[in-house]
């Protein structure tokens, strides 16, 4: 049953049934009831836990029923500067960061062999304030070396030694928050990013970061945020290396020598080695490259072999009975093979207790994460299953990671190959239902839930959708209250996906609401708006009024934040800047040569500097002579330096003092009341300036005429050759400018009578519309003229054409649009020329 529903003790839901929930808000659907089989004697669940936190500029109230509520901090409730922890508080915090003490026989301490040189070098570098990256393969003893260095660096930094675990962290955000919580006393408070960076910059400590998984820019960001800290980073060779400019020293940790391997094996076995075992250990040292983990496991194999071979030493003199199961002659267990010594997980697991093997199955189902030893009796079904953790740790099958244990490197793969992962789905479902009951129990504080975050997330990933929704619903408020917000976000996303697959709309709306609140606390406004709008839509479909109100309140905060961000930069106005006063620097400003409109039609926003040339005229360095009676602008004295110096094209303001605020800068550049444009000074010239539009048309006409002349020359040369075939007949419409070549024939005007057709021209051919009788230049009149049909109907009015005046010495190109009409044959001095009334002007 979900313990966050606000139920009383007498209304607790029984297994396999349903009971009405007594709560202040609407009931939240959590799917079918699940029997979790709580531990005997466990206290009954209380009301829902409501925790108030300070998250940056907000007050966050974690409400497991309707969703978390967020509001701005009230005046006078802002948290002050956090206090630093003293030496005693740091020691207590450091002991809490270590793995817990296990029940059962104590695990003997393992000696640190052949690491004196590396330890002295690391201590020396850390004492100088340098950051070091300790690189070694899995099982090389990096964690043991970090413990040895921590004892030597206790008094090097004012904030002491801080232990952190980088397992599962790809970004430095959570590591910075963990460092902040270790050094400062800030309960129920999570600072914003700006305050966080300001506080961690003041921390001076030796930070031991084990199981590092990030590198490159992420690691550079962590180092830049804490310049007063010296880091000892333990990572594997496959971890991304730091950047070249990070100035991190590199220390590689290799395997042990043969003598040290034999010493470690004897220490773990508790007795001297035989010659056969020494030879076997030498081969194992060569095969495993001297990794200490392999010899810890080999020592466990020798201890198990000794127990099997000497289990009957106490009753050797007694004659075994007839009905006893043991044989009369004990069978000696041989030494493991070299392959078993290199991959000993299967052989070691076959010789441990049944509870330990069940714990290994659970760890394989959870991706290598082993739950806390207090959960094993409920998960395994054995009241003494909590001692299995110490048994597995002594065998070298487990390794410490922060405050918990997980399977050692390569153990999970070896166990899955022999069938330990066949029941992974069932084990994950059992673990998910157990954690759903445990995380929602009122007696479990959020800090304990945060310590089990990796196991809870692994159970959530492997469980079915119903168990996943139930676990995410109960674990999410605990992660939020414990300030472990990376796990909070991961469990919310997994829960939203599981709720979508299970069809639980109410739970899906809750998860999206929490994701929106989390994004708002982290100043991700776009994500917050999207998540809150989704939650409001789902709750509106369910008619959940209280949930909708909570979502709209959070969305209103998002809108306020967006407006505050938008108000930082004022909007730009489209008005042009004011006209600058005349100054020597204004002479060198270059203006674009754009056509200017007439002064009477100039827009009100147009500004022109006094004395500057018109916009339609190109700037020139020469001074034109002043015509008599012309108005001349006042002359500004210009020095030689001002003429030759290049100045930026910026508006020159008349302000005597430079602006000091952003509003004054915008007021100078974009005034609210633009001044009227001054009358431009008249340029004295002999001839009036042409109109802007006419000048452009003249330029275009000249360019087109030049192109037509070139094309006409090429066509004339091509047609004048004797071996050129006449062009093919067909309709043609001329849309390009044409130039009429000058001929010896006089120009026919409109008033002249139409010339009579020549006698030699056949009347039948002249009646064909579109036929041209004009001979091609360079060809005799006897050739058959080319036939070109007209593009205009016979009844259409004739097109107009502009012909050059007869006084022009050369061809005067004029752009025309000519359509060939019906031909009219004329004879001029023995030459047939086809003209049209449209061209006779």
SSE diagram, text form:
Elements: E1 51-55, E2 58-62, E3 69-72, E4 83-84, H1 87-96, H2 116-127, E5 132-135, H3 142-152, E6 161-165, H4 173-183, E7 184-185, E8 189-190, H5 193-200, E9 206-210, H6 217-225, E10 230-235, E11 249-252, H7 258-269, H8 275-288, H9 292-309, H10 338-342, H11 345-350, H12 354-365, E12 369-370, H13 376-380, H14 388-394, E13 398-401, E14 404-407, H15 411-417, H16 424-439, H17 446-451, H18 453-462, H19 465-481, H20 485-502, H21 505-521, H22 525-541, H23 545-566, H24 640-644, H25 662-669, H26 692-720, H27 763-766, E15 824-828, E16 831-835
Parallel strand pairs: 1-8, 5-10, 5-11, 6-9, 9-10
Antiparallel strand pairs: 1-2, 2-3, 4-7, 12-14, 13-14, 15-16
Helix pairs in contact: 2-3, 4-5, 7-8, 7-9, 12-16, 16-18, 16-19, 18-19, 18-20, 19-20, 20-21, 21-22, 21-23, 22-23
Provide an overview of this structure.
The protein is an alpha/beta fold. It has 27 helices and 16 strands. The strands form 5 sheets. It has a 5-stranded parallel β-sheet with strand order 6-9-10-5-11, with helices on both faces. Helix 6 (217-225) links the parallel strand 9 (206-210) and strand 10 (230-235). It is globular, with a radius of gyration of 47 Å. The relative contact order is 0.07. Mean pLDDT is 73; it is low at 1-46, 582-654 and 722-841.
């Amino acid at each position: 049953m979900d313990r966050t529903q606000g139920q009383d003790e007498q209304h607790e839901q029984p297994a396999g049934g349903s009971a009405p929930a007594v709560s202040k808000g609407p009931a939240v659907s959590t799917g079918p009831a699940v029997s979790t089989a709580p531990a005997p004697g466990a206290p009954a669940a209380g009301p829902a836990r409501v925790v108030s936190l300070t998250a940056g500029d907000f007050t966050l109230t974690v409400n497991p029923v309707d969703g978390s509520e967020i509001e701005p901090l009230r005046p006078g409730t802002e948290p002050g500067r956090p206090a630093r922890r003293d030496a005693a508080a740091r020691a207590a915090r450091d002991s809490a960061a270590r793995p817990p003490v296990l029940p059962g026989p104590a695990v003997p301490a393992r000696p640190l062999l052949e690491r004196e040189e590396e330890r002295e070098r690391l201590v020396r570098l850390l004492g100088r304030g340098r950051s070091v990256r300790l690189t070694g393969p899995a099982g090389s003893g990096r964690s043991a070396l970090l413990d040895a260095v921590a004892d030597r660096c206790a008094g090097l930094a004012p904030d002491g030694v801080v232990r952190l675990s980088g397992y599962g962290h790809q970004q430095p955000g959570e590591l910075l928050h963990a460092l902040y919580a270790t050094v400062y006393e800030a309960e129920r408070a999570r600072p914003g990013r700006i305050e966080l960076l300001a506080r961690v910059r003041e921390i001076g400590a030796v930070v031991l970061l084990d199981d590092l998984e990030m590198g490159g820019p992420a690691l550079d960001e962590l180092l830049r945020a804490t310049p007063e800290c010296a880091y000892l980073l333990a990572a594997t060779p496959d971890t991304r290396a730091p950047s070249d400019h990070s100035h991190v020293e590199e220390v590689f940790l290799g395997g042990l020598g043969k003598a040290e391997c034999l010493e470690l094996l004897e220490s773990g076995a508790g007795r001297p080695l035989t010659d056969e075992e020494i030879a076997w250990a030498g081969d194992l040292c060569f095969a495993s490259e001297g990794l200490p983990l392999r010899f810890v496991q080999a020592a466990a194999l020798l201890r198990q072999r000794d127990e099997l071979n000497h289990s009957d030493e106490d009753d050797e003199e007694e004659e075994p009975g007839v009905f006893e199961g043991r044989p009369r002659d004990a069978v000696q267990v041989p030494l493991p093979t070299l392959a078993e010594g290199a991959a000993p997980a299967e052989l070691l697991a076959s010789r441990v207790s049944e509870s330990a093997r069940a714990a290994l199955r659970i760890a394989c189902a959870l991706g290598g994460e082993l739950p806390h030893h207090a959960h094993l009796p409920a998960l395994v079904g054995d009241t003494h299953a909590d001692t299995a953790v110490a048994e597995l740790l002594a065998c070298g099958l487990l390794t410490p990671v922060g405050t918990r244990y997980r399977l050692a490197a390569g153990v999970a793969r070896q166990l899955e190959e022999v069938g330990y992962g066949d029941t992974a789905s069932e084990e994950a479902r059992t673990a998910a239902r157990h954690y759903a009951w445990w995380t929602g129990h009122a007696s479990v504080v959020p800090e304990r839930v945060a310590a089990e975050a990796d196991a809870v997330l692994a159970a959530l990933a492997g469980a079915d959708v119903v168990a996943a929704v139930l676990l995410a619903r109960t674990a999410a408020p605990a992660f939020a209250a414990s300030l472990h917000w990376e796990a909070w976000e991961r469990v919310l996303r997994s829960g939203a996906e599981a709720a979508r697959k299970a069809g639980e709309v109410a739970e899906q709306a809750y998860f999206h609401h929490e994701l929106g609140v989390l994004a708002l606390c982290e100043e991700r406004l776009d994500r917050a708006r999207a998540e809150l709008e989704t939650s409001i839509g789902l709750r509106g479909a369910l008619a959940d009024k209280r949930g909708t109100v909570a979502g709209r309140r959070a969305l209103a905060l998002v809108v306020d934040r967006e407006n505050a961000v938008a108000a930082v930069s004022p909007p730009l106005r489209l008005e042009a800047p004011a006209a600058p006063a005349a100054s020597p620097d204004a002479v060198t400003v270059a203006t674009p040569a754009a056509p200017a409109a007439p002064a009477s039609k100039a827009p009100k926003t147009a500004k022109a500097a006094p004395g500057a040339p018109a916009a339609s005229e190109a700037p020139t360095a020469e001074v034109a002579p002043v015509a008599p009676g012309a108005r001349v602008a006042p002359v500004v004295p210009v020095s030689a330096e001002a003429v030759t110096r290049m100045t930026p094209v910026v508006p020159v303001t008349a302000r005597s003092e430079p602006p000091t605020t952003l509003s004054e800068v915008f007021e100078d550049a974009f005034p609210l009341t633009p001044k009227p444009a001054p009358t431009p000074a008249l340029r004295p010239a002999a001839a009036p300036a042409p109109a802007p539009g006419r000048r452009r048309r003249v330029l275009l006409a000249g360019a087109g005429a030049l192109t037509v002349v070139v094309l006409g020359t090429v066509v004339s040369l091509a047609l004048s050759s004797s071996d050129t075939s006449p062009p093919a007949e067909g309709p043609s419409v001329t849309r390009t400018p044409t130039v009429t070549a000058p001929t010896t024939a006089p120009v026919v005007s409109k008033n002249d009578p139409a010339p009579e057709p020549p006698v030699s021209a056949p009347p039948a051919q002249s009646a064909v519309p579109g036929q041209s009788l004009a001979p091609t230049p360079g060809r005799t009149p006897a050739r058959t003229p080319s036939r070109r049909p007209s593009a205009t109907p016979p009844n259409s009015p004739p097109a107009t054409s502009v012909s050059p005046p007869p006084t022009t010495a050369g061809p005067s190109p004029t752009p025309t649009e000519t359509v060939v009409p019906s031909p009219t044959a004329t004879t001029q001095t023995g030459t047939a020329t086809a003209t049209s009334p449209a061209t006779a002007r």
